[in-house]
Amino acid sequence: KTPLKQAATSQLVLTERQPDCQPLTTPPKPMETPPADPWTPTSNLKMLISAASPEIRSREQRRQLSDSSSEVLQTKHCLQEHILGDEYEKSQPSRKEKSLGLLCHKFLARYPDYPSPSQKSYICLDEVTEELHVERRRIYDIVNVLESLHMVSRLARNRYVWHGRHNLPQTLQALKKVGEENKYIQQIQMIKKREYEHEFDPDGERNEDMASSFGSSEQSEMSFVELPGVEFRAASVNGRKYKSLRVMSQKFVMLFLVSTPQIVSLEVAAKILIGEDQLEDLDKSKFKTKIRRLYDIANVLSSLKLIKKVHVTEERGRKPAFKWTGPEVLPNTQDTKLEATSTTCSPPISESIPSKEQCSKALFPSKGKQNFTRHSSLIKLVKSIENDRRKIQSAPTSPVKISASTYQSLPVFPNTVTQFPAINKHQLEGQSKTAEEMQTKCALSSPEAVPKPEPSQQPALSQPLGVCPSSHSSVSPVILPHPQSGVSYAIYLHPSQAHTVTTYSPGFMLQPLPCANITGIKSNNSKVLNKITTEEGDTQRGMEEPAKSLAAEERPDTKSETSSQRCLKRSQALPENNLIKRCKSDEESLDTSSTFFPSGYLIPLTHCTHGNKAECSSKEKAGMCSLQHTAYSSPITGVIPMPASELKTVNIPAFHITPLNIMLSPNSIAAAPVLSNSCLNSSSTSSAPNPSSSALNFMLQHIGLIPAGVQVPANPVLQHVPVSSQSENISHSSGSTNMQEGKVSYNILQLNHGGLSGKYSAVIPLQQPSAPKEPQEPQAVTENFFRTPGGPNTEPSLSANSDGTQRISQGTLYIPQRKLEVSED
DNA sequence: ATCTCCCGCCATATG
DNA sequence: CATATGGCGGGAGAT
After folding, report:
1. Greater confidence, A479 or A64?
2. What are the backbone dihedrals phi and psi of residue A385, each rounded to the nearest 5 degrees, phi first?
3. Which of A272, A312, A412, A750 is the most buried (most CB within 10 A)?
4. What pLDDT score was predicted for residue A736?
5. Pairwise pLDDT comparison (A413 vs A819), residue with the higher score
6. CA-CA distance, A679 to A535, in Å (whole number)?
């Protein structure tokens, strides 16, 4: 009932204004002090802008502005017009006006995206609730999600610190890594397959096998992924509490980062998130609850512009889904150099740690924020396993750590550059960025050589990686950088199971590995054929002009990106699979049991430039830390002085741990500088050419990705793969945009190679992208999976991967295709 | 009818 | 014990 002044601002207006604002905002913006005067003119402006952004829900009538200072409003007012004939004006706090998404916008408007490090802004929940006129409960929802992204961290009761998006790049990177480790891709495939089966077999209950296997497969015991200096027991607050929403949020994000089309349907997400904990029992109510939560999370993520809502149409109908619109996860650009400079922290750490434990902690260098350690909450473990093993609780060497090591693997290598990575991402993404981001990027980039939009990335990666990595790898577990450009093509290398089992999954120790089981899954051939068409319509409701649409595509950030309202007609989604209801009691019991999972936290050891001892201490908490520290000793070089004995335990796993991803950016050409496990392996293991490489070459050539003459070096690191001009062109033309749109069809090649590790999957663009279609039309993406069973050594276990269909006999070529339709409004 | 998802009860955690 | 958190699911608004 408050007088709302709706700031009816035309989007256009806002857009225009953005330029002005952004420069101000983006860079180091001092931002307002929350307590003092939350509503700064700037903040208001910002808020409006953000609100205006496409993502906002349908006509945004946010009366929230009412509070805002008059001046700001006035400014806006001038511009205000109702355009587009939106009837806004409903003063009613219609339900929408109370939406979490809107609330989140308001919340975000209060703080700068990139607060200057010098001054921290604190968030006082009481103030926020009062100023935003919301119930406290709502704020928690927002804050929890923000916490999961490390955009804020809790200091104490009622008190949070605002970090803004500074940590986003690292966070996403870490999440992606964890997501890969968790094999979410496979899980998704499995779920889809299962659905498919269901279609054919109503009632197919017999899926039990699958279910069980699936459940087991879900290892996701993983817990909250933490960043460097951020979070972590700031005040005593951290203990380990629920965090379920936070964890859920992280997992949800992981799904996007991991999946190829970067589109995740709620249904799938819910199933995966549920399945994790225990054997799966699909309980309908549980499922519904999960969905509710996902909507909550999605609203916040949408406000952050990390995702947007779309609809996926499969044969059965349309299902709500979300598409990742956030920054691509950069490969780890580790710049040793930069790192070195920034790495101030290390010294302190090493110093302080004379003791063995501490040393161990030192293991992982934490340079830039990349290192994450897994901090297991021992408690949980204890329940499940520890009975026997115990005692060692904190000892770094304890088994727990191992698992941790796995996680750690990622971040370990030095990389720091928080900013640069971000830049790269931005570039890659290109258009999609918000204006602010764009500017930031520009600003940052200018100084450095980096600015090149596309190609720049590889070189950077290659060198640094090449140098450090090898050494690193040997020593420290983690370090595999994986280059991923967010771009379309990727080659994934999975660790072979054998090794993998041990090292690979973090959860491994605790639980039986899922992998093995997976194989058993029943397959439906039909699935292979299953097609999914993706269509996206960006246009806002009514608008559709090709030109416009195109423009929109190119520059998503402007208004067109997401119109607030997406009207989707929804065809009835396929009826959900039947879920068997189970007694809650049962579930609960299960849950309890599930508790075991060691929930670990990934804790980035790295410190910011100003490393603090304090952090170290906090870190020690996790047994993991020790390892990192040790490694740390020779952060830059990558050589680790650690005693072999200690390292071994840890290290071994590390090698396998990270699946190698080789990403080829279309633009960049086929060249993929990859630093990978393989190289590590090769170096450490033997000089012999990696068998896998030959297979890879074969495949690539076969497909035409690579000219016949060209060979992909066994050791990917440092090398660029020459690509024929043609291929390059093609890819180039297609551009990331197309890929995203789904127009391009590509093939995914997966090879199982016993020798190295596992399978490689490559995504290769088959066709050049046609010109973008009218946005309205559905675009179809076809994915073909070619699967080549690995060499002799190949393990069955991973086979399940692709679709979950049964294992393929060796030598068999497995080519599932599916079309995906995505529609947006 | 289905999709979204707000509201707020109430169990827990924290202080 | 008083509060602060946040899991959870009913049920209502939006489509």
Report:
1. A64
2. -100, -40
3. A412
4. 32
5. A819
6. 39
Q: What is the pTM of this model?
A: 0.46
Range picked from A263-277, A453-467, A479-493, A618-632 for highest mean pLDDT: A263-277
Q: What is the mean pLDDT of residues A4-22?
A: 28
Q: Round and report the angstrom distance from CA (A95) to C1' (C12).
A: 10
Measured in residues, chain A has a length of 825
Would you say residue A165 has pLDDT above 80? yes
Å: A238 CA to B12 C1' = 15
> Could you say which residues 80-119 of protein chain A have a Cβ atom less than 7 A away from any atom in strand C?
94-96
What pLDDT is recorded for position A298? 95
Q: Is the CB of A571 under 7 A from strand B?
A: no
Task: Evaluate if residue A305 carries a pLDDT over 50.
Answer: yes
Instruction: Give the model confidence (pLDDT) of A631-648 as tens digits.
Output: 222 222 222 223 222 222
Statement: residue A719 has pLDDT above 90: no
The answer to whether strand B lies under 7 Å from the CB of residue A573 is yes
Give the up-direction half-sphere exposure of residue A50: CA atoms within 13 A in the CB hemisphere: 29
Task: Please tell me whether any atom of strand B lies within 7 Å of the Cβ of A1.
Answer: no
A410 CA to B11 C1' in angstroms comes to 37
Structure tokens at A136: 């406290």
Which residues in window 117-176 of A are less than 7 A from strand C by Cβ?
Answer: 125-126, 136-137, 140, 143-144, 154, 157-159
The one-letter code for the residue type at A89 is E
Alpha-carbon distance of A613 to A610, in angstroms, equals 10
Say what the pLDDT of residue A101 is: 92
CA distance A804 to A767: 27
- Phi and psi of A565, rounded to 5°? -100, 130
Distance A397 CA to C5 C1' (A): 35
Q: How far is the CA of A567 from the C1' of C14 (A)?
A: 10
CB atoms inside a 10 Å sphere around CB A811 = 8
Q: How far is the CA of A95 from the C1' of C14 (A)?
A: 9
List of A residues 360-419 with CB within 7 A of strand B? none
* pLDDT reported for residue A142: 94
Query: Nearest CA to A43 among A63, A25, A23?
Result: A25
Is residue A158 predicted with pLDDT exceeding 60?
A: yes
Q: What are phi and psi of A162, to 5 degrees?
A: -95, 125
- Say if CB A758 and CB A499 are below 8 A apart: no
Tokens standing for A674?
């990859």
* Chain C nucleotides covered by protein, CB below 7 Å: 4-11, 13-15
Residue of higher predicted confidence among A558 and A245:
A245
pLDDT band at residue A333, thresholds of 50, 70 and 90?
A: low
Residue A63: which H helix or E strand, with range?
Answer: none
Tell me which nucleotides of strand B come within 7 A of a protein CB: 2-9, 13-15
Please, how many CA atoms are within 13 Å of residue A55, restricted to the half-sphere of its CB? 31
For A83, other C-beta atoms within 10 Å of its C-beta total 12
The overall longest dimension of chain A from CA atoms, in Å, is 75
If residue A821 lies in a helix (H) or strand (E), which one and from where to where? strand A817-823
Confidence of residue A424 (pLDDT cuts 50, 70, 90): very low
Query: A138 beta carbon < 7 A from strand B?
Result: yes
A343 in helix, strand or coil?
A: coil
Q: Which helix (H) or strand (E) holds A787?
A: strand A778-788
A565 touches strand C (CB under 7 A): yes
Between A759 and A198, residue with greater pLDDT: A198
Residue A133, sorted as left (phi over 0), alpha (psi -120 to 50) or beta, turns out to be left
Q: What are phi and psi of A788, to 5 degrees?
A: -115, 120
